[in-house]
Amino acid sequence: MDHDAVIAFCEALQASTTLQELTISDVPSFGGFHGRTLPVSLKRFEWNMGDDEVVDDATLTDLATAVGPTQLQHLLCNGFGSLATRPAAAPMLSQLQSLVVYQIDPDTMEALIAGVASVPALTSLELAMNDESSTRTIEHLMASLATTCVHLQTLHISADALTRERLVLVLSGVLELPQLTSLHVSVCLFEVVHVLPELVAAELPLVLRALARVPDVPFVLQKPSRVDAFVGNALAPRSDPQHQCRLDTGIYR
Description:
It is a single chain. It contains ten helices and seven strands. It is α/β, with parallel strands linked by helices. The chain is elongated, with a radius of gyration of 22 Å.
């Protein structure tokens, strides 16, 4: 697509009043929409420039201008950390609910952690990082989420090799997220058996919070007619040393 066609496309996007979803994947010529804004009607936006594409400051400044006036609910952006430093993007980021960030490496991790402060309304966060992220940065990430993303309900973290120490930091960190009900961490199964105490400690609050969100009576059974007390007892801490916990694993092809 030549430059004139790109500009025409960007202007058509700006003029739209009904567009709700937009995905731009590995199309460098679009840049950050060349000073045009995206429609206010847009709710979901995914902007991925590809693994090998270098995104310059001018492109990110244009992108901030483009998304600033929108009322996005969901954003996928592999340059989120740098985008969050642009004042023009602040109005959109302040009310963003769902964020996905891929291709996180040591060079972008610190910017991501700083950028988390700009999305206080976030309820869902998905991060994909490489295996070079240090234990220290994982610790800083979880601390930042606990401080600024107090409404977070869903957290998904994937990494090439999330070590035992980093997994412990994640599991310990979720205890400081008061609204979290869903945690998905991609990790080698071998590492899981070494963090079972932390896994159990993190799981119980998530289960209880999820149950608390179900309206009215949370369980429907023919007998007994009322099971609330039984459920509370089953989920309460157990002092019986013989109490067992079973971990089921599955292999999906």
